[in-house]
Amino acid sequence: QVQLVESGGGLVQAGGSLRLSCAASGRNVGIYAMGWFRQAPGKEREFVAAITWRGDNAFYADSVKGRFTISRDNAKNMVYLQMNSLKSEDTADYYCVADRLTPYGGVHYSPGEYDYWGQGTQVTVSS
What CA–CA distance (Å, rounded) separates 84 from 49? Predict the structure, then answer.
């Protein structure tokens, strides 16, 4: 069983930055693709970013490309999401996810493809 625990959420002004962290534990977690989804009030969960298990390829939603950076440290079983130039529309609960089976060299974009989810951390961006 894999457990994912997010941290780093909070309240920030528009234009500011936050760094989310995800601590992963469990068997084989180091070889799973990892990512982040978010869900704003009244909206569906949406893909934010994901990274292959080796960390050599990262993928982003168009809405965050150029502002967010996903990274991972397999030695520590940690995944990070650096969020810069935050906007009010980035306000949401952010979820760390892990995927056991991914396309070669790629990642999945649908929430249903991810096997493990954290409890989420709230990010609020004030305008």
Answer: 14
The answer to whether the beta carbons of residues 124 and 86 sit under 8 Å apart is no
**pLDDT tens, per residue, the chain with 127 residues:** 899 999 999 999 999 999 999 999 998 888 899 999 999 999 999 999 999 999 999 999 999 999 999 999 999 999 999 999 999 999 999 999 999 988 888 899 999 999 999 999 999 999 8
Bridge-based pairing state of the strands 121-126 and 18-25: unpaired
Residues near 112 by Cβ (< 8 Å), separated by ≥ 6?
Answer: none
Kindly report the three-state secondary structure assignment for every residue of the chain. CCEEEEECCEEEECCCCEEEEEEEECCCHHHCEEEEEEECCCCCCEEEEEECCCCCCEEECCCCCCCEEEEEECCCCEEEEEECCCCHHHCEEEEEEEECCCCCCCCCCCHHHCCEECCCEEEEEEC
Gap between the Cα atoms of 91 and 38, Å rounded:
9
